Structures
1.
Amino acid sequence: MMRFDLTRVPIVRAIFVARGPQLALQLGAMSGLILVLVAGLLGTPVGSRNPATVLVWIAWWAALIIVAVPFFGRLWCSVCPLPLPGEWLQRGAMLRPRDTGRGLGLRWPRRLRSMWLQNGAFVLVALFSLPVLTQPRLTALLLAGLVLLSIAISMIFERRSFCRYLCPVGGFIALYSQAAPLELRVRDAQVCAGHTTKTCYTGSATGFGCPWMAFPAGLTSNVACGVCLECLRTCPLDNVAINLRPMGADLLDSSRIRLDEAFKSLLLLGSALVYVFVLQGPSSTLRSSAAAVGTAAWLAYVAAFFLIIAVVLPALFLLAITVGRPGTPGWLSPSQGFRRFAPSLVPLGLAAWAAFSVGFLLTNASYILPALSDPLGLGWNLLGSSGMPWAPIGGSLGAWPLVVILLIGLAWSSRRVRAVAEELGGGVRAAIPVWAFSLLVTSVMIWVFVA
Amino acid sequence: MGLRRLTGEHLARLALGLIMLGLPLGLVGAWAVARTAASPTTVHGRVTEDGGWLPGTLRATVGTPLRLRLISDDVQHGFAIGQSDSPAVDLPPGEIVDTTLSFSQSGTYTFYCTRWCGPNHWRMRGVIEVTGGQPAISDAIDPLYLSLGIDIDAPHPALVVPGVRPSAERGEALGTGLPERMRSRQDFVRRSPVEIWQGLRRDPSTTGLSDSQVWDLVAYLWHSTTSIDALSDGQELYAQNCAACHGEDGAGDGVMAPNVAAPVLAGHESGDQPSSPADFTDRSTMLGASSALLQGKILRGGMGTGMPYWGPILTDAQLWALTDYLWTFQFEEAP
Amino acid sequence: MGLTTQFSKARVPVLFVLAGLALFLPWRTPVIAPVERTVRVVARDFAFTPGTLTVNPGDRVTIELASGDFVHGLHVEGYDVNLTAEPGQPASATFIADRPGTFRIRCSVPCGPLHPFMAGRLRVGPPVAFWRALLLAVLAILVGGLALRHSSRAKTADQGFP
């Protein structure tokens, strides 16, 4: 498999190892967060004019889903401002280790060391998303809440326990970063085998031990690595590499997937489906119910959400997997089949989220400059664009760009399905039902977009 | 331990401090300064259910311009001063609109919302207390309905109704021979169409005319005592203020009508006797009302029925233009 | 497997031909004489009623926007139709529906929190685009699942883990 180690290029390595550039980006992100918090709490309550809603849910979210995650993996996590206050307090340092630090440093409870908490956090945010997405105060309170939570977690538990086990966005990024052409891995496992100190995990004077509690030599996918670059700085044997690689390389090994990650693939795909159908679909009653948090109509929506995500979609998926079973040698149990086919849902889900986000971005991008020009609603015109009218982009193309994105995801996913079917000795016959499942999910979204 | 390392960390902390303290301080400071500034005064506009105009009372002095920064906090609103020539200002949601008001006389002025913002849109009003200067010479006279002793809350059934819609154009052909005393504006506004018809019917000059032709004369009298400008003004005022409840065609079936019949604001001082908006196309009631009665109703409001009071908002000329326009729901200008 | 190998060799031209057919093959739609249509769309509570307007290609369509609560706007993507209305003051626009397809109708005046999601659809003619896209989706599955050589290596030697 082709890989090009970027750290072999001296200037690139220097930029990665130096803490300055990363810190500059982190401080930039922090400034953005502060602007969002102040504007959200003090600025206008009108969602289309306030930077809190516009910068977070239109600009940053689109950049994350369309560019950062598919092409740069988890790179956002290395500059994300949410855990930084907690981390700096915990470490007692912003740059190199200083033998200072606060916090109890407890290990994360064993029973909670899985993706289920993150899955739950994502669902929770999703259910309350309509009011939060559209009201600046609520967006600010959500982000402030996450910052405070991460500080609290950092003072009690070790390293980036918040990021790894709780952050709802982190769970999302983790899964889809597997599609990216960028990865952090060790160069030679034998070198690691011979190195007893394991400074990449324990830390040294030059860097902290992996905040994500991962063992670099054991990384087989982008899911567990937040690309914070500490191991690049601590490894005394220069054995850490940042590789350019073919997209989706992590999806090739379907045998390593655990149930929580497999379920996450289905959960996030289902969430995209629900989002597309509720927010862009034909039923305004459904939309209003999803927005009317606390009412009976909303409870009905929540019930329907769970029904689709936790019952209908998994049942259909399992059906598709087991239908191809009879007569094929070497077939596994439904649970194992579920885990083996789950990675093929990653490109499908990523395409669904990307298509949804592109649609939302094209419609609402014209709000960004006016919101930045008058961030607190005080009548400023910093960028001269305060009076810019709303202007959706690309109306004559309709939803075809979104369809193209879906088709790319579908083709990619189908290829993965075929590959897994071959691995399991099932061939095309085993792949067809799963293809049908993917086609069903995709056609619902195509119908919402173009019909 | 190298000096370099310490400096790096300190620089980082300095940068962080600048950002975490400087940025919020700057932003919050700017916000606080704007909020507490004496001038211009910031007025937030919200739908009545969420507070209406905040603040609802402003103060100004004669001779000093009142600078206002208006900002809508939810939907499209508008701002205007009642009984004033100054054009209304639109308030797009979330955008600051600056305006300056000048007052030459002291008194209490009403400002109000000019773009529909829910069923309680008409309740979105505030006052400006203007002090100083010469007190306004009170030239207020009693509204016509008061001086005539008309009970505007009493039912006004029409004892006689026309068979077809009376036409002013047909009436004009017939009415050229009418004596001058019967064609005054004063006369027209004081009596209901039924009373006018009865007066005309009894008059010897109409002996040869049929009942419906006399109705045409009534329509002609209406049309000849008003003007094209007044009817046009009335139409605009009706569309902006009345059509939402009374319907674009005057039938009392506007989009807000269901809200009026069951008022939204509980415990409001008016609204304990809700009823449907009046149907101006109903001959059996409309023709029994005089223009003075209609003008009084519009001026004073509905006393618990949900009909707004327009006294502080519309000038006399506007009120009469509106009542003139209301007759278009009963009379044709031309067939 | 033989079919797959042949597919692999000829995949690019076959792909283009099939995609071109799916996209551009003329769709036989029944020709219906264009008529004059008037539709009253009521905007209220972040919804357009009716939410879907169905017309035939060539129809002369008049949309009357009436509002039930606040100032709302109506913008039809793909056609240059822009209206603003508030209770008591409806607004109309007339246009010829000469471009077939499904076009989003969006509210163009901020009218509260759910404003960005206040949308409807104008359907001119049958939803041919949907069927074309569906065909392309089947094609995408075939492309991904059959026509391309797939590498099914579960592990690669140079990944460097034990």
Note: Residues 1-28+126-147 of chain C form one domain.
2.
Amino acid sequence: MGVEAYRLAISSLIAAAEKGQGPAGEQLFAALYSELHRLAKRELARCGFGVTLSSTTLLHEAYLDMAAREGPSFPDQARFMGYAARVMRGLIIDHARERHAQKRGGLFEITSLDADAMEQPVDHRELVQISEALDDLAKAEPALAEIVDLKFFCGFSFGEIAAMRNVSERTVQRSWEKARIYLHRKIRTDLIV
Amino acid sequence: MPTLSPDDWQALSPYLDQALTMTEEQRAEWLRSLANQDRALASRLGALLDEHRKLNQEGFLEKGRVSLPATSGLVGQTLGPYTLVSQIGDGGMGSVWLAERNDGRFERRVAVKFIHIALMGREGEARFKREGNILGKLAHPHIAELVDAGVSTGGQPYLILEYVEGESIDCYCDQRKLDVEARIRLFLDVLVAVAHAHANVIVHRDIKPSNVLVSNDGVVKLLDFGIAKLLEGDGTVAAATMLPGEGGSSMTPEYAAPEQLIGGRITTATDVYALGVLLYVLLTGQHPAGKGVRSAADLVKAIVDDEPMRPSAVVVTAQDAATTSAAATRATTPENLTRQLRGDLDTILAKALKKNPVERYGSVTALVDDLGRYLRNEPILARPDAFSYRASKFVRRNRIAVGLASLAIVAVLAGATGIVIQTRTARRQRDLAFRERDRAGRITDFMTRMFKVSDPSEARGNSVTAREILDKASKDVDTGLAKDPEAQAEMMTVMGKVYASLGLFPRAESLLRQSLEIRRRVLGLEHPDTLKTMRALAATVAQAGRYADGEKISRETLDIERRVLGPEHPETLATMGQLAIDIDMQGRITEAEKLLQQTFDLQRRILGAKHLDTLATMDNMAWILMAEHRFPEAEKMQRDAIDLEREVQGPEHPDTAYAMNRLARILSLENNYPEAEKIQLEALAIQRHILGVEHPNTLRSLTNLGDIQTNAKHYGDAERTFKELHDIQLRALDRNDPNAAATIYNLGCLAALQGRTEEALPLLRNAVDHGLLPQYDLGIAMDDDLKSLHGDPGFAALVAYAQKHAEAQQSK
């Protein structure tokens, strides 16, 4: 059992965050963050050198892991992903920043796209801009921001997101397109200023 | 490019939604017509949509790799004779890996510690070397041994340490349910290791459970001298020698001493403090800064400013599941744990946890000595003064709670003045009778709300207090409301029902009988309220197992109802149903079946086949058929009832799920366990979905599931089910909830069934101590599941203990 004081189930934090209990949101973020971080490390330790781990897999693993640990009170996968996607974004950006600061390449990578795409990694400054614009968008239309987190940062397809939210794929795509207009406009504007 | 303010976006957003659903041509057309109404709007939208087209072509945000670079993936790397196997830890200072010897000479696993990449550099390296030096000096059976140190081919310095296969000391103690004394003895080994370090002028500075491992054979090993410090000549560590980021980030704030957090001088007393925290956690299951998730800043404040609560007070004041389980993992009850902690251990911990380092134990050895005195029952040297401030604060806080509770009772019992005044001012004048009724209703609502806390089917929160209120209120109800017999009788009925739902039938019955007497006197024999109390009394007496008495009351009620309400009144029919159960339970099954059939026919005709009362009767008929061991008929009746239930209330209704529970039970009695389990799981899924995981009915289904699995001899599954159930109960119910106690009892049975006697007895004892209902207490001796324990002296003692417990409960 150990110390009770500093551990709280993710499910309780989600419940508290949904009830709008102020600090719960931050605690939830922090808890999910360290959880995902831990899992990423674990997975990579297991898989070894130079592997590529998709963030989608990571999130699925995280869900299964936590749901198994916390039992039936754990929220369903769709609800969970809504929170976790935002956290994943934080994780990716922090690491991009860190990498930039260290000026050295990592030995493994987590990617949100097919590994065979082999495109250039997105510049960390651009990621930070996207993230800031997303935070902005989240204030106006949180649902749109969540779709960008799920799609861009976590690599879920329109189909998967649609299934999660029980809406049509077309609806998800429209939300995505709309969000993208916002983000693009916001980023360009910021560059000018 | 024009900026897009939040207001702009708000205004444009709905139009964008619309536009994005259209094809290119539709969109152009739509924009043109929009321009006729609002040119500015149309042109802004046009610009955004152009942008959209471009973004589509570019594939904005659809290309590019978003990636997570990380520090290391070292699996498979070799360091001299060792190969890295997996990462086992990642601290602020670096990462720790499990490695194996690869030269095949002998099998040895070691832990390899690398310094964190960000800490590389002159200082980091220097520090790392220091840890090597420190450990090199410390050869002690309770300190993890330094095997080797070196620099990898990649230029990374590393330490190779003894690999301790074990778990952190707190988990070790909890999993083995070590009692207080065993915990202290284990902790003494930690102290000896730290004392050895201190003798070598080394302060550990990061003592916490994860740095104190206990190997599988019970040997304590102190690890991680990563931030350890060599003491300066004057016996302190100058704060100025700390590395950047060392103060807050690399150390564990929960175990940090105040002086570490405020940048004070680090001495051996710093370790004494951390050891105090560790012992506090081991003994109470809680951190001295109290419970609850908090920010690091709050934690720091608590450590620096707040006096910790007395360990013994932690156990009594935290009235929750965690405390009960904390006690259980210490092989005792909260009450006993409190008793053990009170006095010397409170005092010893207070001294170790003093804010001011000079007031703490002067050395670890002094702490060892005092704990030794405690174990030998000798007077300890520490003086009990430390917790007075916090204790008085607690009493003050508690007094308010006590006061509030008394006030509520007074308000209700002293004629409910407050409520009456409110009624008068808030409502227009109405005739007296109506107002009286209104008031009674209010009192009832109020009381019911208060008592529901303690009703096991509603349980949440603090049952002890609610029970106390109930007990006090029921004692005072005779006198307190004597001037208002009608309100008094109403409250007695409510309280009687609550006592009945708590399984405290004698108390329930006495209240209901008093209420009935008053109502008969004041309202008359035939008043609807009088009949209501009679029905409650009949049900209670039956629940208490006195079916003959229950039958008498039911018959009496039925006579009046037939006369006053008519033979076909729904209430009359409901009483017929109750009577049938009374008769059935006395073994006159044919008679019961006949009466129930009659009830069923009447209900079908008068209320309709799909009326809820009719469906309830079908359930009861299935029950009777089951009791007669006419399982196929029972199964059919129950299946029909379920079909109707599905049709009337829907497939996802609680009643449907309840009826499915019954079916699962019948199937289980038919030894058709696979199907029983399947139906039970279906019912459970419905309940989880619509009622939630913590709802009493959901929990009941989980109990049934565990029961079915036990009957099917799938003991492993059953154990998992009951453990899951118990976890939920710990969270959702009061700590002495009879249902939770029943689950512990069931786990005890499962341990017994699998021959784990030494585990079964404490579980059963634990169940008795935590609210097991008297009928279970008295049934222990006859429980077939516990046969394997017969003949064990511990079992005989338990039976006697439970008997006493049951008697005490019933005489209350």
Note: The two ends of chain B are 81 Å apart (CA to CA).
3.
Amino acid sequence: MILASMGDELCADVAERDTPARTMGDDAAALMERYCDGDASAFRGLYAVAAPRLLGYLVCLTRDRATAEELLQQTFIKLHQARASYLRGADPIPWLYTIAHRTCLDELRRAKRSPVKLSREGAVLPEASATLQGGAEGTEPRFAEATIAVVLEALERLPEIHRVAVVLTKIQGKTAAEAAEILGTTPGAVKLRAHRGYVMLREMLSEMEDGS
Amino acid sequence: MSGPASKLDRALQAMGDLPAPPPSAALEAIVSTAAPVARRRPGRTLAWVVVGSLAVLVVHLHGFGLRRDLSALPTWWFWSMAAAWLAAYLTPLVVALLPRRGSMLVSARAARAVAVGIPILGIAMTLWLRIDAPPATVIPDTVHAAISRAEWCLVTGLEMSAIPFALGILALRRAPQPLNVRWIGAALGAASGTLSALMLHAHCWFGGAFHTAVSHAGQAVLGAAIGALLVPRLMSRNPGAPDA
């Protein structure tokens, strides 16, 4: 009964976390402006504003916290390299999502080319596990982590277009218009994909719940 | 507040933010040396693309010459149609290359609207506002003659639109793009196609609904289809994104 008793633990997190997206975008735009003008401290501010959300996004795409953290660093390095592309007054957050997504795709392509990880002695290493809080190996994960791992597993089984739409709208809290801007499609298409993905996700989790 | 759906909602929402590690030493080192940078100017890029494309149009018209039935046609009609085709070229190009104020990325919704709307408008305009002045305007009287001339117009139009399309691709590659660029590519292709339609309107003295709708206005449809197919492939390694 994975889903049956998880609500209370997550309530507090959700209530504390929600920040108006517009404020985030405005802050990010002002920080990006200063950063492009050569203010390194503004970069740290931008990182503080955007990194938690981007990390959540990357974990949903990769299912691996360590890989997601590595990709997060690469995303910001690429942002630095491409900062001349920034337009004055524009919200850089959707752009950051596209950089993060493409960085992730590159990583997945690289991983496909070398699907088996070997130790120095040539032994096959086990797949990295999907932990969100980065807890030490071998420790019993907290209940919320176990639940989220199940949701991540179900998310991975969704078709790509539905998964990204669900991640952006249901997890990242983007509006359909914001998600459409990132994905390069229409808000209507995003709503449809997110709804279908959400329904599929719910069915998968119900099956998992019944199975357990 | 119970049931699998609301519990799933809460699980999904809890996954949004994660405590991120601080910037790595490598990232800090790179950022600490950051100097002010010159910004991208999409308006200037757009202007270069327009100037380059219009130069290609002028060169083609200079080579091919204006239509032979020009003296038999109403001047106001010729110039009005030319202005309409020019507007039909500029509209999708602006949508494909200029992000909205406050946004870094071009709107795919607007791109879709112009990529679909402009070719339809172009064909409708050609059919409803067409003026032929036979015998100065040649109306093909056999299927063979119609196909032969249509082939020439289609091939010449495609050749002409290649350079404006390439200029647009270069401009797109310099800018950050959303994850899916199919509609933006279609808008860019439609723009290149309408420029060909403008060239054919000014040069081709063959008339008739079939010829003008398919061979002239059809360039916009063809361009949009080619753009939608080619641009996602050509943009797969986009330095402006940046993912190179």
Note: Chain A has two domains: 18-117, 137-212.
